[in-house]
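Per-record layout

source: Amycolatopsis mediterranei
name: Adenosylmethionine-8-amino-7-oxononanoate aminotransferase
length: 426
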Amino acid sequence: MDSADLLALDAQHVWHPYAPMPAKVPALLVTEASGVRLKLADGRELVDGMSSWWSAIHGYRHPVLDAALTAQAGRMSHVMFGGLTHEPAITLAKTLADLSPDGLEHVFLCDSGSVSVEVAAKMCLQYQRSRGLPGKRRLLTWRGGYHGDTFTPMSVCDPDGGMHSLWRGILPEQVFVPAPPSGFDTPPDQSYVDLLAAEIERHEDELAAVIVEPVVQGAGGMRFHHPAYLRALRELTEAHDVLLVFDEIATGFGRTGALFAAEHAGVTPDVMCVGKALTGGYLSMAAALCTPEVAAGIARGELPVLAHGPTFMGNPLASAVANASLGLLADGGWRTDVTRLEKGLLDGLAPARDLPAVTDVRVLGGIGVLQLDHPVDLAVATDVVTAHGAWLRPFRDLVYAMPPYVSTDDDLAVITGAMLAVAEKA
Ligand code: PMP
């Protein structure tokens, strides 16, 4: 079948994310991905600035990840996890417990980031119920957040941002407070901490947990905040008997310059969600980690088990490739890579400050963002970035990149050049 036939079938049958059916903007047909490059059916090669939605941190077709996957496929691709276990999942859980902030010891493997947020919420609600506090079943979160596309994560996504406002009245009603003032280096604002304190105190009898994206609010707006707000949240949640959940699905595994964003604050949450880069972007797998206190609390309840068990839980292929990906991070070389990304993004995006449409330029670790004064036209932006040899997916008024850690300075120049071009033209 040639490319035109495939694209016609794509338009007829394949429903793409956040797109109407049939799609208005045709998708690009990718035939191969290797290193940081996507090869298109029409022969073009694009430098990937998205890391496949922030997950392919080591690039595509990494020999170590390919080998781990192939070797595992030769042994066992899947077995049910109920009543059975296996080395790849055991090694993965132990490694995650070792790498994550001290105190997070138990690992519940999930099939996607959204599911790990569902599981985290279940952990918190079940924990409170087990303590005889069933009224504590709401979640408090920051406006401007994003936690996934199933119902519980949607209920804590930004309520006004357009993504999920359609579902108001159907989703569980959570408690929203303003997001912290923007800026990783902006000195913390005590009046904002006072506001957080007042809201947590006001709702403490009905709050199971506070859930936030630490340091970077991703798909809700690509905003950064000072780590001191995480320390404030830790103190406030402890003082008011509320659990604290960090959603590290986008920030985890080095993206912000720390292995987990919680490390910028030196804080351990009660529950932490990871996903995306966990498998180096090879397969869908995520995890919800929790402290022994949370697990023991649930075990004392009327239903002493965590009522969750998807068919593909602990998938050995995903576990094996996750182990290989974590193995690549183990020597700490990623720190040098992410520092290089940060410099390349800062240098490459500096000229954007002079562009009339750009209202903000922000860079943290391997994340570079241009905020514009108008929403971009996705079709125009896609033409612009591909004409510059890059792959990016701007949204709303944001043009951003989260390149693979292995991107070279030349790759970063292509990516930032494409971002500037969108800011000039789209
Ligand atoms: N939380 C955060 C912070 C995310 O960025 C995402 C995905 N963009 C999710 C949750 C949902 O993860 P998934 O797409 O794997 O369900």
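summary: The domain at 76-329 is CATH 3.40.640.10 (Aspartate Aminotransferase; domain 2). The chain has two domains: 3-61+333-425, 76-329.
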